[in-house]
Amino acid sequence: MINFTVGPVQSSDAVRAIGAEQVPYFRTAEFSEMMLENERLVKKFANATKDSKVVFMTCSGSGGMEAAIINCLTPQDKALVINGGSFGERFVELLTLHKIPFTEIKLKYGRALKPEHLAEYESKGYTTFLMQKHETSTGVHYDINLVSDFCKRNNCFLIVDTISTFLCDSFDMAAMDAGVMITGSQKALACAPGIAVMILAPSAIKRIEKVQCCCQYLDLKLALKNMERGQTPWTPAVGILRQINVRLKEIESAGGAEVEIARCAELAKYFRDKLVENNLPFEIVSESLSNAVTPLHPITQSAFKIFLKMKDEYGMWICPNGGNMKDTIFRIGHIGHLQKEDYDKLIAAFIDLREKRFI
Ligand SMILES: *Cc1c(COP(=O)(O)O)cnc(C)c1O
Question: Which residues bind substrate (predicted)?
Answer without folding.
Answer: 331
